[in-house]
Design a protein that fits this description.
Blueprint (H helix, E strand, L loop, with lengths): L3 E5 L7 H14 L3 E5 L2 H12 L6 E7 L7 E5 L23 H5 L5 E5 L6 H7 L3 E5 L5 H5 L2 H9 L3 E7 L5 H12 L7 E5 L9 H16 L5 E5 L6 H7 L6 E4 L1 H7 L4 H13 L3
Parallel strand pairs: 1-2, 1-10, 2-3, 3-6, 6-7, 7-8, 8-9
Antiparallel strand pairs: 4-5
Helix pairs in contact: 1-2, 1-11, 2-4
Length: 281
């Protein structure tokens, strides 16, 4: 089976126009999975997007333990803001939680807060989601275990499951422990996402090395699972994985893939996206 391309829209992105566009573009380009916020409106937007193509990628929703960065959103304190312009291109309503604006702000006027909404996985299923990904954050056993029944029930109804281990919050030993524990919940192999440096995709080999390094550690551990790097992944990831002789199942791209097509017409976006998807095959 050839490796798949997973588009990561973002676990906190709820803009239906952007989601529908991304879904349509990357479905047309040949993506195998589209990863979304665990919100029925996000799933519905992605379903509309892929429905305008002849393709049928799996729609996956992401949930997370409380300390995972994927459910964070930037909030600006206007009383502290000096209007320096460093974040003038930032749209807080479309924030994906990367935290770059907060790190750059010279006044400390931006903080990252957990984006709260009630996760209704039944409604996500009804909207068309058939994949579920659990982001495990710092890997605290109690926090991860609290999601066990939800994840097991999802698989029992016929859904696919992925566990994401975070290379920014976990060292390799901790990541292996969490991955092995979650894998033990299921009889059949699952997908494990090695999220090297979450929400950080840029150009160049250095961007993707943390994800590949973590993938190598998980693969070496002997865990019976399909391994898919993300978190800094880009058009170099699959080529480097091949050079490193890493038998990955696919590649997940978020920031890099979204930025590649932002502001482009549908036709131009599909051309760019198709080249990116082809880099994984």
């Amino acid at each position: 089976m050839k490796p798949f391309f997973k588009l990561i829209c973002g676990a906190s992105l709820l803009d239906p126009v952007e989601i529908e566009f991304l879904s349509r573009v990357y479905s047309e380009a040949g993506a195998g999975i589209i990863d979304l916020a665990a919100h029925p409106e996000a799933v519905a937007a992605a379903f509309r997007g892929k429905g305008k193509t002849a393709r049928n990628p799996l729609l996956m929703v992401s949930v997370a333990v409380e300390d995972d960065p994927h459910l964070l959103i930037a909030k600006k304190n206007l009383d502290k803001c000096s209007r320096c312009g460093l974040c003038e291109e930032t749209c807080f309503e479309r924030c994906c939680g990367c935290g770059k604006c907060a790190r750059l702000c010279p006044e400390g006027a931006i903080e990252m807060l957990r984006k709260e909404w009630g996760v209704d996985l039944d409604s996500c299923w009804e909207a068309g989601a058939r994949g579920l990904e659990l982001h495990t954050g710092s890997g605290k056993k109690e926090a991860v275990d609290s999601w066990r029944k939800v994840c097991e029930d999802w698989v029992k109804r016929g859904g696919h499951f992925s566990c994401s281990v975070n290379g920014r919050q976990l060292d390799s030993e901790e990541a292996i422990r969490v991955a092995r524990e979650v894998r033990s919940w299921f009889e059949l192999p699952i997908l494990i996402q090695t999220d090297g440096n979450p929400i950080s995709g840029q150009k160049g080999e250095d961007s993707t090395l943390p994800a590949l390094s973590l993938a190598r550690e998980i693969l070496s551990s002997g865990i019976d699972a399909h391994i898919q790097p993300a978190g800094g992944a880009n058009d170099q990831t699959a080529r480097l994985a091949e050079q490193m002789k890493l038998p990955i199942a696919g590649v997940g791209m978020g920031s890099f893939a979204r930025n590649l097509v932002r502001g482009k017409s549908f036709e131009s976006a599909v051309l760019e996206a198709s080249r990116l998807v082809a880099s994984v095959f």
